[in-house]
Amino acid sequence: EDYFDRNQRISRSFERILNREPTADELTTVNAFLDQSQDEDLAGLTHLCLSLLNCNEFIFVD
Fold first, then answer.
1. Which domain holds residue 12?
2. Quick one: DSSP state of residue 43?
3. In a domain, 36, yes or no
C-alpha cells in the first residue's frame, strides 16, 4: 500500500475504521498532525488509526 499518497492513506484509514470518507476539515487536521510527526509512515498513521478506533463514532452506533 506504500504506493498511496498521504491523502489516500488517510482516506483509506477513515473508510476502513469509520466506513466513510474524511471531511475536508478532518483531512486538513490529520495532514497538519502528520506534518509534525517524526515518522509519518509508521508512528503518525499508527496514532491516526488508534485515534479513529477510540472516537465516539467508532465506539457507539446511532
1. 6-59
2. I
3. yes
Residue 1 lies in a domain: no
| CB contact at 8 A, 30 and 22 | yes
Helix (H) or strand (E) holding 57: helix 56-59
Query: What is the per-residue pLDDT across 8-52, written as a single tens digit (0 to 9) for each?
Result: 999 999 999 999 999 999 999 999 998 887 775 778 889 999 999
Number of domains comprising the chain: 1
Determine the Cα angle at 57 with ends 44 and 27, to 5°. Answer: 40
Q: 22 vs 5, which has greater pLDDT?
A: 22
- pTM of the shown model: 0.82
